Amino acid sequence: MKAFILPAVLLLFISCKHSEETKDALYSRHLQRKVNLTILHTPAPKDHSQFNLLLLNDGQDMEKLRVRETVDSLYKNGKLQPLVVIGIEAGDRLKEFGVAGKPDYLGRGNKASFYDAFINDELYPFAKKQSGVRKFHSVAITGCSLGGLSAFDIAWNHADKISRAGVFSGSFWWRDKAAEDSSYSDETNRILYAKLKASRKKPQLRYWFYAGAAEEKGDRDKDGIIDVIDDTKDIMALLEKKNLVTGDNMVYRESKTGLHDYTSWRAAFPDFLIWAFGN
After folding, report:
1. Structure pTM?
2. What class does CATH assign to 8-277?
């Protein structure tokens, strides 16, 4: 009989008594580069299928978001289910983040479809193998700013695997025409908004949104409300109009003093984790 050798990360999951953080890397054939990963996990449950998974864009900034301290605190206080967090170190954010298959008017986001494929075809199977599970209890993806736009789009595209999307100050302004163009329209030129409006998909997703009232001065429609809030609420209203959300399947958090920075985002991060993976 051949001996069964457990993956190194899984052995670590079994042996630890406290939350642990490890570094790993995965070569992506879609992105044609090595993707560095930070893997954080709470103590393993007896049944590994009780593990939840959080995929985090901009994993290089996990310390700025204080992911480990927040997860440790919530788990210690019984507010968090068993969780694996994979922080994905960004490559060229302006190329790999965005809406898959639809670059913006400056050609940015032209590799978003490859990043989407990396998450779906390579990272998700890797996460299952390394965590020793056939299927996670639940899977969420989150990100801030352009990483938040990316997280929403990936969740929308792969609702068969991902059930929750967390968006901190999402770049829902992402557009295929300059706002200064006289023919520009919020209805047709905001890329994600137009994609959702035209879509016939009915993904079973839950959404968590955050925006700060002090993030910017921009106000395209001159209604006295900054664009990051307007754009976020427009996405939410469209989801409701298309009957894609009910009850607490969609949550919105707004900070009156919130800036477009990690200080503001990390203040809201515990709320997101409890919403997504709370006991």
Report:
1. 0.93
2. alpha beta
